[in-house]
Amino acid sequence: MTKSKKPRLVIVGNGMAGIRTLEELLKRAPDTYDVTVFGQEPRLNYNRIMLSPILAGEKAYQDIILNDWDWYEANNIRLHAGDPVIGIDQKRGFVFSAAGRKVAYDKLLLATGSEPIVIPVPGHKKNGVITFRDMKDVETMIDGAGRLQHAVVIGGGLLGLEAAYGLSTLGMKVTVLHLAPHLMERQLDTAAGTLLKQELERRGLDIILEADTAEITGDDRVEGVRLKDGRSFPADLVVMAVGIRPNTWLARSHGLATGRGILVDDHMITSNPDILAIGECVEHRGLCYGLVAPIWDMARAAADTLAGSDGKGYQGSAISTKLKVTGVDLFSGGDFSGGKGTEDIVFRDAARGVYKRLVVKENQLIGAVLYGDTGDGPWYFQMIKDGTDITPLRGTMAFGQGFEEGALSDPFKAVADLPADAEICGCNGVCKGTIQTAITEGGLTSLAEVRAHTKASSSCGSCTGLVEKLIGFTLGDGYVADSGPKPLCGCTSLDHGEVRRLIVAKGIKDIPSVFQALEWRTPDGCHTCRPAVNYYLLCAWPGEYQDDARARFINERVHANIQKDGTYSVVPRMWGGVTSAKELRAIADVVDKFNIPTVKVTGGQRIDLLGIKKDDLTAVWADLGAAGMVSGHAYGKSLRTVKTCVGTDWCRFGTQDSTGLGVKLEHATWGSWMPHKFKMAVSGCPRNCAEATIKDFGIVCVDSGYELHVGGNGGIHVRATDLLCKVTTEEEAIEYCMAFIQMYREEAWYLERTAPWIERVGIDHIRDRLTSDSEVRIKLRDRFLLSQKDAQDDPWAARAKGVDAHEYQLLATIG
Ligand SMILES: Cc1cc2nc3c(=O)[nH]c(=O)nc-3n(C[C@H](O)[C@H](O)[C@H](O)COP(=O)(O)OP(=O)(O)OC[C@H]3O[C@@H](n4cnc5c(N)ncnc54)[C@H](O)[C@@H]3O)c2cc1C
Ligand code: SF4
Ligand code: SF4
């Protein structure tokens, strides 16, 4: 059967539900349909749950993409991103899009999600009033937080609190206005709501309860929020997070049956047998859902229907909630509203900040609220779903599953007792059986591998402990727990990644504030953390952060290399390894004038002047500077050299102008501070005379263009480069080079060369960011260019004019 003869499936909505259905369908019946997907957002399919961690600076957009372009391509799926469907012709079987596309369908799947509710108080249309629904909202908030001071979040539910926490980690002063008498009243009882309020206030949020909004004030732009009781709060940004409603517009206006949502039966079929609907836009047995867990079940049912098998259909879902605020453990599941015939089992440990409330009806657990210790959440939730008779557990149930008859039992008992279909990772809908099968059939032995293969624990991370237990239980002695990242140094328990993330998320702009805000154990840090923090600040705030010379190692502080006899060596920059009579003459004069004992050609094609006395340094630089030479940064964690061969200029084999490209690369990138030293090379043909394949970034010119290589090292641990990609023009080669350097600058740990960095994160991660998405690459290149504006300032010239003169003066001899 040719492709065009296949039945045509059109999916409206490139979100979590639509694409999950497609994934399930591909598992059951690959290649059955000719598939077209329309998405209103101009993006790939991403994990919407993870918008909160992005806002809080804990994840990047790249981390939450669920399916990249390759996936759509590999599965022959046509994606029209950024083109919403605006019409359906049910009679003839067509959809129409805003961009004018007309696409025929045999089966149509509507997965249009929800729309955020905006309360129509006066001023709700002012500039600066936004909702929290998609990546665009998050970008607006991140952008606003960089410029604005006060945020008001209207709504103290799950989304409102996650937005408020995110904005406050971005440095805004945040007030939460909540109508009800306690936070998250739909998920929490009063006691847990009060504990949560105290914790969030401790973290700097202002929370106003029973706050009824009357008006959003300001002229064109929002300036504040006034309540009905007269109180006012300043606001440069107002986030409305008061709820969602199913997005039924398309279905309703084209004649499908709708109630609160699009009406569907157990097989996700709407009032038209050829049209299915799924996700937050539907109403099933009178219920609409606003969380992902039901979507995984609906997707299985819809995929069965599309694959032509009846299956058992969708039976409705019990739902549980977690709040994704780092460090706040909160779980709620089932019905805890109480009422006639229910009893409460309450466990409170004020000292540990732990609170649990279990609601029991007719010897069955029907609801659970956990605060402070949520490890047993899945166990309680499973009992709620199964309707387990809790009579034998009643006495000890509040202590959790690990506790039996007063003693701690087998640590793996909690997971061992869960049935195979118990959901372990709510964010990605992965159940115990799937993880176990992946472990046993795929020979997986670590958390990282389980994450990579099943997606479990790869999103909000709150199920990590449970996944680790499951791996331990499945492998027995074969499991060695991942040791995890190590603290940056003895002054802190945070690792490099956390320090970097928090510097950006909290907008911290100097070293003392880092130590204070991140609760360093020492007042001034140590020789390990000071240079690292100095670098992280430099990288995070180009042009703003004032470099702290005291936080640099001696070579960087004095801009020369200290040698074993206490003298210094100086390497002037020679662009691309090319020099001239004028430069050589200046070097020769300096050698004579200052009695420099050794002149050596380095491995990177530069001239090293060795044996200079410290107090001669500034005069040496003044003379070299007068001949137009600048610092070669041979001492620095920065670009060292770009080695080149002679290429087409002189060599019979050269295919490109390798020398010219090397010179351009060096001009573009010199002066850039990096996590460690950085070397480049350009060879004019695969004979590779410039040894480009053992450099941090190497280019090998070939007939058809340029091979770009990364992560090589000729040092103690020799490592050949990985091939990043091939490009056809010099401009592209330079763009990739800058983007790669910026990615290294932003993601590697201080003192980590590119070789170990690439081995740690994997070349695929680097290829993904640099080659799969030109937008990401261009943004990295632009951030690099921004950082270069202030970096390309010759430190020698400034010192020759007297900057830091004290560094180069001899101490007086006493006695
Ligand atoms: C900030 C945030 C945090 C969340 N946190 C959690 C959480 O912790 N746990 C949890 O379980 N759930 C959470 N959720 C809810 C979860 O994200 C949703 O339940 C889930 O995304 C719903 O999937 P869906 O496919 O139905 O809708 P969506 O994922 O919203 O996808 C619908 C897509 O359809 C598109 N669309 C709409 N109309 C058209 C049209 N006419 N043409 C083409 N495309 C159209 C929309 O632009 C959208 O991209 C969160 C949601 C948000 C916003
Ligand atoms: S790498 Fe190729 S072009 Fe360059 S000098 Fe060697 S042989 Fe010539
Ligand atoms: S190879 Fe070792 S000894 Fe030689 S210059 Fe480098 S660090 Fe010094």
TrEMBL record:
<feature type="domain" description="Nitrite/sulphite reductase 4Fe-4S">
    <location>
        <begin position="636"/>
        <end position="774"/>
    </location>
</feature>
<keyword id="KW-0534">Nitrate assimilation</keyword>
<keyword id="KW-0274">FAD</keyword>
<dbReference type="GO" id="GO:0020037">
    <property type="term" value="F:heme binding"/>
</dbReference>
<dbReference type="Pfam" id="PF03460">
    <property type="entry name" value="NIR_SIR_ferr"/>
</dbReference>
<dbReference type="InterPro" id="IPR036188">
    <property type="entry name" value="FAD/NAD-bd_sf"/>
</dbReference>
<protein>
    <submittedName>
        <fullName>Nitrite reductase large subunit NirB</fullName>
    </submittedName>
</protein>
<dbReference type="InterPro" id="IPR041854">
    <property type="entry name" value="BFD-like_2Fe2S-bd_dom_sf"/>
</dbReference>
<dbReference type="GO" id="GO:0042128">
    <property type="term" value="P:nitrate assimilation"/>
</dbReference>
<keyword id="KW-0001">2Fe-2S</keyword>
<dbReference type="InterPro" id="IPR016156">
    <property type="entry name" value="FAD/NAD-linked_Rdtase_dimer_sf"/>
</dbReference>
<feature type="binding site">
    <location>
        <position position="689"/>
    </location>
    <ligand>
        <name>[4Fe-4S] cluster</name>
    </ligand>
</feature>
<dbReference type="Pfam" id="PF01077">
    <property type="entry name" value="NIR_SIR"/>
</dbReference>
<feature type="binding site" description="axial binding residue">
    <location>
        <position position="689"/>
    </location>
    <ligand>
        <name>siroheme</name>
    </ligand>
</feature>
<dbReference type="GO" id="GO:0050661">
    <property type="term" value="F:NADP binding"/>
</dbReference>
<keyword id="KW-0479">Metal-binding</keyword>
<dbReference type="GO" id="GO:0050660">
    <property type="term" value="F:flavin adenine dinucleotide binding"/>
</dbReference>
<dbReference type="Pfam" id="PF18267">
    <property type="entry name" value="Rubredoxin_C"/>
</dbReference>
<keyword id="KW-0411">Iron-sulfur</keyword>
<dbReference type="InterPro" id="IPR007419">
    <property type="entry name" value="BFD-like_2Fe2S-bd_dom"/>
</dbReference>
<dbReference type="GO" id="GO:0046872">
    <property type="term" value="F:metal ion binding"/>
</dbReference>
<dbReference type="GO" id="GO:0051539">
    <property type="term" value="F:4 iron, 4 sulfur cluster binding"/>
</dbReference>
<feature type="binding site">
    <location>
        <position position="651"/>
    </location>
    <ligand>
        <name>[4Fe-4S] cluster</name>
    </ligand>
</feature>
<dbReference type="InterPro" id="IPR012744">
    <property type="entry name" value="Nitri_red_NirB"/>
</dbReference>
<dbReference type="InterPro" id="IPR006067">
    <property type="entry name" value="NO2/SO3_Rdtase_4Fe4S_dom"/>
</dbReference>
<dbReference type="Pfam" id="PF07992">
    <property type="entry name" value="Pyr_redox_2"/>
</dbReference>
<dbReference type="GO" id="GO:0051537">
    <property type="term" value="F:2 iron, 2 sulfur cluster binding"/>
</dbReference>
<dbReference type="InterPro" id="IPR045854">
    <property type="entry name" value="NO2/SO3_Rdtase_4Fe4S_sf"/>
</dbReference>
<feature type="domain" description="BFD-like [2Fe-2S]-binding">
    <location>
        <begin position="424"/>
        <end position="471"/>
    </location>
</feature>
<dbReference type="InterPro" id="IPR036136">
    <property type="entry name" value="Nit/Sulf_reduc_fer-like_dom_sf"/>
</dbReference>
<feature type="domain" description="FAD/NAD(P)-binding">
    <location>
        <begin position="8"/>
        <end position="284"/>
    </location>
</feature>
<keyword id="KW-0408">Iron</keyword>
<feature type="domain" description="NADH-rubredoxin oxidoreductase C-terminal">
    <location>
        <begin position="320"/>
        <end position="387"/>
    </location>
</feature>
<keyword id="KW-0285">Flavoprotein</keyword>
<dbReference type="InterPro" id="IPR005117">
    <property type="entry name" value="NiRdtase/SiRdtase_haem-b_fer"/>
</dbReference>
<keyword id="KW-0349">Heme</keyword>
<dbReference type="InterPro" id="IPR017121">
    <property type="entry name" value="Nitrite_Rdtase_lsu"/>
</dbReference>
<feature type="binding site">
    <location>
        <position position="685"/>
    </location>
    <ligand>
        <name>[4Fe-4S] cluster</name>
    </ligand>
</feature>
<comment type="pathway">
    <text>Nitrogen metabolism; nitrate reduction (assimilation).</text>
</comment>
<dbReference type="Pfam" id="PF04324">
    <property type="entry name" value="Fer2_BFD"/>
</dbReference>
<feature type="domain" description="BFD-like [2Fe-2S]-binding">
    <location>
        <begin position="488"/>
        <end position="537"/>
    </location>
</feature>
<feature type="domain" description="Nitrite/Sulfite reductase ferredoxin-like">
    <location>
        <begin position="563"/>
        <end position="626"/>
    </location>
</feature>
